Structure formats: C-alpha cells, structure tokens
Amino acid sequence: MIDVARQHGIDIVSISDHDNLAAYFEIKSYAEQNGVTLIPGVELSCEHQGVDIHVLAYAFDPLDERVEKRLAGFRDTRHTRGQRMVERLRSLGYRVDAKRVEELAAGGSVGRPHVARALVEASEKSASRSPRPSR
Known about the structure:
The chain is α+β, with helices and mostly antiparallel strands and 135 residues long. It is 53% helix and 20% strand.
C-alpha cells in the first residue's frame, strides 16, 4: 500500500481495519522510511436498531490505552457473534469448523466473511468426498 501510494504521488495515507490497529503498527515504520505520513485509522463495527453500521475513525492517538481497551471490546463482541453463527450453522447440519473461522480471521476481528469462507471450504471438502453418481 505504501509503495502504491508513493508511485501515485500520495504522501499521506491511512489504513483502517475492523476493530484493530495491527496494520497501522505493522507498516508505520515502513511508511516513515519511505516519506509517507500514516494516519491512524480504524473501522468500528456497530449496530443501531438492528442495522450494521461501520464508522471510520481517523487521527486519534493509537497509543491511548482507552482506545485499545474499547477496540478489544469490539473484537470480543465480534468473536462472540462469530461463535454464535458457527453454532447456529452446526445446529442446522452444516459442518463449519470454529477453529477454521479463527484461522481465517488471522488474529483480526472475526466476521461474516470468515464464517462464510469456512462454510464454503467445508462444503467443498464434503462434496469432494461424496461418491459421484454413475451415468
């Protein structure tokens, strides 16, 4: 991302992941070394009256412990929701693996895309083991 920004003459960027600052801390020094100002950003997953809302926040102190504490709460909520989705799918007979969902989230916030990917993988695996009807 930093290299692409520089190639296009952009010298101020932000990266905003769901409910965490991991990417910011991962690329901050690289951005500085390459003359790019990296602004802290985060995408907060919220719900209002049953509707998912994604709020983008920028230019805050990424080292403020209150920010990390709040983000940890958001991640816990998403993790719990992901577990409930897996449990519900399993109760309906789908062989989705909660551990695989966690792997797909790769340490980030668990979301619907991770559950969906694990479900597709499980379906593909199941289909490849099923005997094919003869013609």
